[in-house]
Structures are given as structure tokens and as C-alpha cells.
Amino acid sequence: MRKIAIFSAAFALGLAACQPVEERPVTAAPAPDPALVKQGADLADALCSGCHAVKPGEISPNPNSPSFEMVANARGLTQDTLGSFLRNSHNFPERMNFEVAEEDGEALAAYMITLRREDYQQPIE
Length: 125
Description:
mainly alpha
């Protein structure tokens, strides 16, 4: 009797293991506000395009300045971390003498995050 109980329990566990596991849905980051994205795109054209490629497929005028697409596709980057990075990255007067205001950093980050692509491949240098 005990062998039958053990066999039944093992059989039930085996069947349970073959059942499909319900996957948890991946929670995507909320889409940026379209007005903020537009503001960021306009700022990028006006303030950043002298050094950076601000649209996909462009080449940065300054070879030392990464394209916005390259930055946006950096591993682990979020809109929040990008906004913080933008507000702090240009505050080196000896190199750029350019400062990004907090509200501009948020708008630029909202635009830049729209440049993320699942199939992005970093250019070969």
C-alpha cells in the first residue's frame, strides 16, 4: 500500500511538472508624455545637434560625442537614470562648458528613451 501511495505521489508530481507554467507579464515602463517627447526632440535639435547625432541613423558631428541612439540603448538605462545623467554629464566646463537644466534633462530623456530598440546593435568602431 505504501508503494502505491509513493508511486501515486510521484506520478502526480510528474504530471504537475509537465503543466505549462503561467508566466508573469512583463511590466513595461510607461510611455513618455508625447508633449515632453516633442519638447525634448526640439531641444535636441536646437542645443545638442552641434555635437551629437540626435536622430537615428545620423553620425555625430563631434566624433567624441556619442549618438543619442547609442546612449538610449545602453544596458540598464531608464528614463530616470538618463535624466539624471544628462543633468550631471555636461557640467565639466573644461570640456564642454554646457549645462543641462533639470526640466531640459527630463524632456531630453523623454525624447531619447523613444530611440530604444530591441534590435539595436552598437556600431563597430
